[in-house]
Amino acid sequence: MKKLIVLLVILNWSCASIKKTNTIKELRFIGEQIIPSNSIYKNTKVGGLSSIDYANGKYYLISDDRKKSIRFYEMELDYNKNNFKKVTITNVIKIDIDQKGLDPESLRYDKKNNHFLWTSEGDIRKNIDPKVFEIDFNGKPIKTYKTPSIFLAKNNKKNYGTRRNGTFEGLSMSKNAKFYWLGMELPLKQDGKEPQIATGNYPIRISKINKKTNKLVYQFAYLLDNIPRNSIPKNKFIVNGCPEILELNKNNFLFIERAYASGHKDGGNTIKIYLVNNKNATDISNIKALKQADFKTATKKLIFNFEAIRSKLTDGIIDNIEGITFGKKLANGNQTIVVVSDNNFNKFSKQLNQIIVLEVIK
To answer: Exposed, middle or buried by CB within 10 Å (0-12, 13-18, 19+), for 29?
Structure first.
């Protein structure tokens, strides 16, 4: 009887521990660092940092520079629970590929084979498909994955298919090493409108892909928010989308939503991190059009709104956050989350290479 009681206590503790591990209560701001926009490293201009991932004590950030060579940077971030001290660039790796028509957006380390996967949004106007590529640490090509037919440029029509700059923005490795996740930035034409100021249904598709077979094995819908504020002047340029996803475990994810309204002195960005659960979401992989379809979306819970730390950031600017990763653990055992902004090489307005570190509170 005593052995049974001890076993039950252990099981109860273990279940509670697992439950606690799968839950994020809140995120706490640690600090921010800015990489100057005029920074040059090994004859490359540091900018366009569209994603971030963490592996073997280093951080890896892809640059979406389509005029020069496609590349990713290796960096070290020095921080503790009290402050974020500095960023050190330790390497730049050029990706060995014909970059015509490619638009790099996300880079993820695949620990199963010690390679990287990265996405390109392609160019629908030029009939260039969004794609996922596999490379080694030296940027050498290993594999090009098959793009699901629903996202192919050749299938794009007036009221069907992908939207320009709205495809493979998000990428996450699955805890099950057989799979990876692809996140669309914007709804497909047949699924819903692009987000507007008004509340509406703006569903994007999140796809689970088998790495070995290239097959889309599961897909769920996630509803984007409406755009929280208008541009100055009104309706000049506004947008909201999902630039990155990050799997926590089997049914839970972190999603970034990034809304932008032009003309605002504070940068115009509204950035939020949501805790997303797809346990009861409908598998929509066989639903060609979500408009008028009957389906359940994933649930979402706001876990961090960057408005809460705006006053602590450089010039009160929340910039174009596009990347998210789990970083190193702190001395107290808590996990950290690191996000990075894409400064677009300051093509449109003054922007920042902004890196922000948050502590995970469970």
So the answer is: middle
